[in-house]
Amino acid sequence: MINKVISGADEAVADIKDGAVLMLGGFGLCGIPENSIAALLRSGVKGLTCISNNAGVDDFGIGLMLKTRQVRKMISSYVGENAEFERQLLSGELEVELLPQGTLAERIRAGGAGIPAFFTPAGVGTEVAEGKETRVFDGKTYLMEQWLKADFAIVKAWKGDTAGNLVFKGTARNFNPMMAAAGKITIAEVEELVPAGELDPNLVHVPGIYVQRIFQGKDYEKRIEQRTITK
After folding, report:
1. Which of 46, 54, 68, 103 is the most buried (most CB within 10 A)?
2. How many domains would you assign to the chain?
3. Is pTM beyond 0.85 here?
């Protein structure tokens, strides 16, 4: 079985060049590839197109890459927690494509499944539909959306094995599995790395066939974006 383990985040992102298209897993600050983002900051790569549900916050996640002006374009669904994102958008410094969350998820899934386009009712009659084909099915108008693919998909899992099989924990699964399938090269960082064969095949969320590089991460902060408690 192929061993896909590499030394760490810096080696994982070393060949990501200026202008690359990246998918970064996570939802809010949950399940984001913290180590890989830190390595991208150190690499200084720029002109990136980042496909992610959101843009982190000002001092964490993709928000750090926005501060260093490494991101040229964001394709996202929700970005309301990032003041620097707002500033760059309003000043015209950052190109942004905002999508309904379900459309974003399905465009990524379609990219991984090899489906170039699909029709959805979401966005019909709004700015999202500008320049896109519409078609009527059973008396209802639908909007055609195209797949999303990336040069690199960067995901974070709870556990993985040396062959690249991945297991996620709880809601940290979010966009990670579908992104893993949609990247030409998929980089996985994991909290726990085990030998091939130790994971129960019935519990694997992403088969190793989709993963080209895997490494064990460290020092995860796992920040909570909005802490809500009961008294």
Report:
1. 54
2. 1
3. yes
